[in-house]
Amino acid sequence: MMRSESRALQLNDDGQLKHFLTLDGLDKTILTEILDRADSFLTMGEQSVKKVPLLRGKTVVNLFFENSTRTRTTFELAAKRLSADVINLNIETSATSKGESLLDTLQNLQAMQSDMFVVRHSDSGAAHFIAEHCTPNVAIINAGDGRHAHPTQAMLDMLTIRRHKGQFEGLKVAIVGDILHSRVARSQLQALTTLGVDEVRLVGPKTLVPGFFSEMGAKICHDLEAGLKDVDVVVMLRLQKERMQGALLPSESEFYRLYGLTEESLSWAKPDAIVMHPGPINRGVEISSEVADGGHSVILNQVTNGIAVRMAVMSMAMSGQLQKAETDQGSEGEK
Amino acid sequence: MTLDLEPSLASMKQQLADYCQAKQIENAIVVGIHTGGVWVAEQLMSAAPTKDPLATLDITFYRDDFTKAGLNPKVNQTSLPAIEDRHVILVDDVLMSGRTIRAAMNEIFDFGRPASITLAILYDLGQHELPIAADIVGESLKLNPDQRVKLTGPKPLAVSVIETD
């Protein structure tokens, strides 16, 4: 899908988010609005009632064609903290009749008068397909599709970086590991580039970090020391063994020896570098336990931030599906 | 149309001091509702029986018109201390329908159960749609349906009446 098509599908006439499918085509202003809104929701953790009535009366369907307990749980919690009613559906994918089964499922769910679908699918483009075919006023949130995109994961990573580093300008970020199979890495690269970091390095073996990623504005490194040298942020990716066909890796132990993040390899980064991982962690495969649990790790912050980012995206998309927001800039608004 | 702000603020300060004394309210928390309410609350701090800094409230997530009007693009920070069993002095610039105050009270109760809430309003427009009235009022105004009070600030704090059509 072209950037302009993606933008047209995701934004309403006023430039507000109505679906959240990919970061491709979204500009810095809207990404920053998502982060600002997520910051507002993070402070809700200080309330005794960690819930706001924003989506009260709305129905959110977590439509998971591919299993992911962690992502589904955070989306569910985010929707519930917005006071929405939430239904979780885990649906087996039928590869041969994808279009038919998706449409059938969609029509049934629309008949239940749902207001939002959170879609996870192993096929790239599934969320776009649903967004193109759903009825108006239903918001679609992509919770990960194939190798294509995982935009809420990327935005929670951006929130984590901003909260720890303050800004994006001047930062060097290394994304390490299985880039080839990672929708997270693709979305992260788009977000980091849009938000204006100095440099993004994609680090890993040639089989998992193909050269064409340089066309997306990243620097390719096949040597871990060169890749981590003086970076501010290290993002370790999970080895997606279930997605690998053929011998892309000699062995896990070999991968760990060459590309695993240990206290020694982390010392090549800046002294105040933060370490992130989208989870679930393969300890001793991508990252050592010492680093995963150490002082540089912000992995659990990512989980907390994930709920706030998903609340932000859900509320913005639902709002964008409704009529144009009042833009009271003074203090004479509805009182 | 212009309004004279200073006498209204002076009146509010006196009313607030008298009210708190009569009700024996001590060590209160002053909470301003973004944006105009925060500016007015800053002016009242010297007359309030409080040792705490000014607290602020953004009621965006608690508005009752989300499904009609969507989400306000600008959300300010809500910053409230522990309010359990504390006396809250809730301050806003304008009381019109009362819906903002309803939303503010809902949000306050999500932080805890205060001992009391006192409502202080700079301008009461007398168009209440809910059973909500202010305890302290700077000035009561009767405006035409197409008129609104607009406060600008915080420095200098100024007020005017604007036509909305």
From TrEMBL, chain A:
Pfam families: OTCace, OTCace_N. L-aspartate binds at K98, R183, R238. PROSITE patterns: CARBAMOYLTRANSFERASE. Signal peptide: none annotated. Residues 18-162 form the Aspartate/ornithine carbamoyltransferase carbamoyl-P binding domain. It catalyses: carbamoyl phosphate + L-aspartate = N-carbamoyl-L-aspartate + phosphate + H(+). It comes from the Bacteria. GO terms for molecular function: amino acid binding; aspartate carbamoyltransferase activity. Its EC number is 2.1.3.2. GO terms for cellular component: cytosol. Keywords: Pyrimidine biosynthesis, Transferase. Carbamoyl phosphate binds at R70, T71, R120, H150, Q153, G279, P280. Pathway: Pyrimidine metabolism; UMP biosynthesis via de novo pathway; (S)-dihydroorotate from bicarbonate: step 2/3. The keyword Ribosomal protein does not apply. Residues 169-316 form the Aspartate/ornithine carbamoyltransferase Asp/Orn-binding domain. One of its GO terms (biological process) is 'de novo' UMP biosynthetic process. Catalyzes the condensation of carbamoyl phosphate and aspartate to form carbamoyl aspartate and inorganic phosphate, the committed step in the de novo pyrimidine nucleotide biosynthesis pathway. Belongs to the aspartate/ornithine carbamoyltransferase superfamily. ATCase family. HAMAP family: Asp_carb_tr (MF_00001). Heterododecamer (2C3:3R2) of six catalytic PyrB chains organized as two trimers (C3), and six regulatory PyrI chains organized as three dimers (R2). This is Aspartate carbamoyltransferase. It comes from Marinomonas posidonica (strain CECT 7376 / NCIMB 14433 / IVIA-Po-181). The gene is pyrB.
Automatic annotation (TrEMBL), chain B:
Pfam families: Pribosyltran. It is an enzyme of class 2 (transferase). Residues 16-136 form the Phosphoribosyltransferase domain. InterPro entries: PRTase-like, PRTase_dom, PyrR_bifunctional. Signal peptide: none annotated. GO terms for molecular function: uracil phosphoribosyltransferase activity. Keywords: Glycosyltransferase, Transferase. The keyword Cell division does not apply. The keyword Iron does not apply. Its EC number is 2.4.2.9. Coiled coil: none annotated. PANTHER family: BIFUNCTIONAL PROTEIN PYRR. NCBIfam families: PRK05205.1-1. This is Uracil phosphoribosyltransferase.
